[in-house]
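Supplementary Methods, section 5.1.

A reviewer requested that the exact input to the structure prediction be made available. We therefore reproduce it here, unchanged from the version used in the analyses.
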Amino acid sequence: MKTMFLASAFLALGLVGPTGLASASVERAQDERATIGQAFQERFSGTRLSFTPQSGLSNFTLRVSGPEGYEGQVFSARVAPTFRLGDHGTVVDGRYTYEITAATQQRQSRANLPAAGSNGRDGVSRAPLVGVSQNGRFQVVNGRITPFDPEVTEGSD
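The structure derived from this sequence is encoded token-by-token as follows.
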């Protein structure tokens, strides 16, 4: 009887939806995914691409690819890296894409329990960190990075 009273009280107060506590946790998970979806703010300056990350991220990898087989990659353990186009090959005008990845402080949940006798400190027994990534594109015009504008680039083909 007390359980029904408490459940009715929570429903009346709007603390849980009609499906119970599960709906609150689903909404929280959706909010976390939305936040993680924009973990980085991109910045373009001349021939440099840099990012301002959310706090708590580490182990950054930034990959850039472009026309005529252009590819480059940089890694940084503690701060978001800056990518200079000229450091990774000849820079030609055209469309470029990037992908930046990083690790959060959150550990992935495991489907199986660790083996008996695991001390929880061995690298094998620790769950990997949850990763985040963001993709984007930009264009190079007259040797300088500019934000991607589909109208300009579609008309130039």
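The helical segments are 2-13, 21-37, 150-155. These observations are discussed further in the main text.
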